[in-house]
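Could someone model beta-D-ribofuranose with this protein?
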Amino acid sequence: MDNQKKIPLILDGDPGHDDAIAWVIAASDPRFEIKAITTVAGNQTLAKLTRNAGKIAALLDLDIPVAEGREVPLIADLMTGGDYHGETGLDGPVLPEPKYPPSELSAVEMMAKVLRESEEPVIIAATGPQTNVATLLLTHPELKHKIRLISTMGGGLRNGNWTSAAEFNLLNDPEAAYIEYHSGVPVQMCGLDVTEQAIIYPEEWEKIRALHNPVAETVAGWLDFFQIKLKDLGWEGVTLHDPCAVLSLVHPEIFEMHDYYVEIVLDGEYTRGLTMADYKGTTGNKPNCTAVTGIDREKFVECLIEACSRFGGKETV
Ligand code: BDR
Ligand code: CA
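Reply:
Sure, complex below.
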């Protein structure tokens, strides 16, 4: 493939099992050119997540900078995911040590550098709280035009998961999401509407394990770990939230999408972090986001297996 046609991509997240699997998909796809990984506090405290990011980059053999982001949300207190992703934030298989220390640039300065230097507009796949992205938009408004799209995992038009109203990434830093959705930069929102349909079942990830390459075996190990956590919450299989934010970029045909005006609710004892879609068009506001609302689950699983097969081994689908 012609290098120039690749999509420059920044992976911003809080890895996290599903962030990590999103990054596997990104690294596997020749249409992407990953420019940097940036970390943000969320699933665990920042230092742990930055370490995880370095290890994932080593596993995927990515020679790109890993830059550490904000330790706390813009205004809210930090709320981690507790032991949801384990003590390290990425418990499960043993990973290789990071090949390089984190960059001396902060996440936001790294993002700004990538945007400044890129000839093509860049996509930011933001799969944690939107703290880094909002800080970038506030501190470097002159670079907004270099962002082709912010593809986020966050929110949910019909329900929350951390409270009845709010999804974890949104509740963590609603002010950041508010800044992003009001920035004028194109936003694609993979909320719980789609991500809770993006389920993989144990017999399906056995096909991933059977590929017998180190990345595939690690992905299967992450899913083994995550399934135990999710079973306690009443889920069969594993919901793969963050991978939707990457896969929807290269396989839009397996997703359902609608343009809506979405407001981020910042107040209310029970409504903070709610993503409110103007389904009826009564606000008079133009759509500010493309909401991804549905998925062909079986095709999604096939894409994930195929992504893992690109790291070697025999595809068994
Ligand atoms: C989101 O919260 C985190 O636990 C996951 O990594 C995902 O980004 C789902 O609500
Ligand atoms: Ca995440």
